[in-house]
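Title: Comparing notes on inverse folding

I've been comparing how different people in this forum approach sequence design from structure. To keep things fair, I'm posting one structure and asking everyone to reply with a full sequence. Here's the target:
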């Protein structure tokens, strides 16, 4: 029985971290992107020192997630500050096995976040079932999913394609003052991959307790951390931007011509091919030119 209680406690702790990450879109939260030359292992001791210096106590929870973001070729969702992603949350089962809670999340301005259940089928009954994203959604809710997309400007769901995949590690610090919750500070490390390119960055998010909604007791922590670790990367209206928009902007900053390469992948391949052909022709010319001179 004690064994089951132990795993239950682990699951509750993970859910707390997951809940903290899900609350990142709250209007009264604040966040900043960490400088690229700073590892969060250096930031976290400073954070703990700031927490303890004001007599607060904390409880740390860690979560791991894998996500894939999807959009139309015209990037309609990005342009509207909306997002569509597959998300898998890692957790430990009662038998001490690593498992994943999977779901599809559509973030809209009008309806907030809409969640769709995931199921992996051995065979696709319809053509849409062969689509990477649509094929993962339970068949009974696919019609609702496509209708929701059309309401939000995606008229041809089969044209959706992967923008990038993201692996995230979240450290959520729940802060207490005299055993009363003050809020949560979430430090997230991102590893983002797209078109054989990979970038790394981190974000600090400060979320006041839902019981008080008061940011005052967290302001000094947020201000000190931001002063020491904030990136010079300019993300306008950071608190109102979707996570998709923030990741996309980091990709643009760190990967040359990312936007163009994403919208015109075949053009990029053609340019690479043409470049290789030109190099080949140059080598052939040099080889035969040398032989021609030698023969003379």
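Reply #1:
Here's my take.
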């Amino acid at each position: 029985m004690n064994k089951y209680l132990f795993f239950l406690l682990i699951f509750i702790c993970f859910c707390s971290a997951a809940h903290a990450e899900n609350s990142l879109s709250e209007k009264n939260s604040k966040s900043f992107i960490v400088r690229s030359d700073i590892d969060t292992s250096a930031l976290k001791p400073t954070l703990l020192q700031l927490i303890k210096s004001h007599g607060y106590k904390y409880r740390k929870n860690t979560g791991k997630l894998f996500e894939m973001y999807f959009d139309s070729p015209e990037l309609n969702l990005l342009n509207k500050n909306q997002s569509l992603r597959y998300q898998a949350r890692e957790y430990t089962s009662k038998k001490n096995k690593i498992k994943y809670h999977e779901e599809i999340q559509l973030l809209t301005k009008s309806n907030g976040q809409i969640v769709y259940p995931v199921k992996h089928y051995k065979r696709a009954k319809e053509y849409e079932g062969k689509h990477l994203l649509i094929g993962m959604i339970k068949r009974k809710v696919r019609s609702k999913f496509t209708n929701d997309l059309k309401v939000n400007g995606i008229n041809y769901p089969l044209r959706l394609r992967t923008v990038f995949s993201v692996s995230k590690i979240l450290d959520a610090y729940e802060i207490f003052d005299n055993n009363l919750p003050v809020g949560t500070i979430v430090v997230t490390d991102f590893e983002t991959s797209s078109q054989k390119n990979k970038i790394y960055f981190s974000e600090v998010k400060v979320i006041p307790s839902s019981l008080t909604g008061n940011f005052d007791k967290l302001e000094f922590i947020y201000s000190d951390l931001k002063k020491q670790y904030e990136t010079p990367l300019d993300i306008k209206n950071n608190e109102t931007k979707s996570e998709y928009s923030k990741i996309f902007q980091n990709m643009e900053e760190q990967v040359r011509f990312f936007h163009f390469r994403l919208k015109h992948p075949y053009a990029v391949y053609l340019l690479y091919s043409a470049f290789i052909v030109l190099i080949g022709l140059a080598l052939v010319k040099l080889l035969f030119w040398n032989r021609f001179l030698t023969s003379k």
